[in-house]
Amino acid sequence: MAAFHHYTPTAFDLDPETHTAAAADSASAPSTPANLRRVRDPNIDPQLYTPSKRMRMMTSAVAGTSGSFLVGPSKVTSQTTIPAPVLEGPPALAAPNWDHLGEPDDAMEDLTREQLLEYAVRMRGDLRNSQQQIRARDGIIESAHATIVVQNLFVEKQSRALHSKETKKKNKRETLPMDGFGRHLTAPEFIAAKEEAERLRDEEIADKAKRADDREAAKAAKEQLKEEWEQIKADHAKAVELWEEECARLKDEGVSKKNLPKKPKRARKPKAPAKATTEDETDGDQTGSDDD
Q1: Rounded distance between C-alpha atoms, residue 77 and residue 161, angstroms
Q2: DSSP labels for 125-140?
Q3: Out of 217, 230, 235, 277, which residue is the most buried by the measure of CB atoms under 10 Å away?
Q4: Which intervals carry biased composition (Low complexity) (predicted)?
């Protein structure tokens, strides 16, 4: 399934008749080249197929069912659904006698020939029951795996539809309000609406350029703070080294430990200044008295 997510089926792969089993008269040559098909040899073990071969066969098989939209070019909508999963339980089959597993290995040494034959018949019956149980469970597992594959294809189809909707480019064409009526291109209302649309577009371009400049300025400030921090750490390391040398010299001269100079402290890591938030000043209405 991981490889199938990166596989785009072609029209030839979507044809249900692309991969057909070999017929009895497959040795005879076709009458026209148009009848050529990829013949699948039933004697080949499917486990030997390459991933691309398996994807093509699965695509062709799904294309011949009601879920052909899962591998076709059509897009899914909110009305597109897939069948609900069927939860199957183990069938009511005869269970083998598991008590034989607890018998010791030397339990059959003292049995007669007739008892051994009877024991072999019981073992064959238990094996037959086990085979039926295993086949039934294998069928349930195969059905569950097929349901999971269909659900995975449906989810992948939905994800592609959502991705195309989310990444849809914004329409930059201007739409002027017409109120359902026609407008003259030289009418004052049309010219005013056109100028307003151009003004909004210019403001959007200016805002976009300003945001780009702000990002560049923030990036440059971050780099500068990083360089300052590295310089602070280097200066502090050098100061500590000089302090250690001075302390060692004073100790050799007999200075007590309490009289030694204190270890130099490292300056705090510089931080970017917070953005200055300026509030719009609102001027109140001023009332003045008329001069006489």
Answers
A1: 8
A2: HHHHHHHHHHHHHHHH
A3: 235
A4: 20-34
For the chain, how far is it from start to end, CA to CA, in angstroms? 93
Domain extents in the chain: 1-22+34-74, 79-163, 194-259
- Position 274 confidence tier, pLDDT thresholds 50, 70, 90: low
Long-range contacts of 155-164 (CB under 8 A, 24+ apart): 156/5, 157/69, 157/70, 157/75, 157/76, 158/76, 161/75, 161/76, 161/77, 164/75
Residues 39-61 as b/e (b if ≥16 CB within 10 A, e otherwise) read ebeeeeeeeeeeeeeebbbbbbe
Predicted TM-score (pTM) of the model is 0.41
Lowest mean pLDDT among 52-61, 105-114, 184-193, 269-278: 269-278
pLDDT digit string, tens, across residues 66-85: 666 777 777 777 777 777 88
- What's the CA gap between 50 and 60, in Å, rounded? 16
Contact 129, 92 (CB under 8 A): no
Question: Radius of gyration (Cα) for the chain, nearest Å?
Answer: 41
What tokens were used for 67?
């879920």
- Look up residue 165 and give its two tokens: 């909707």
Please name the amino acid found at residue 205. I
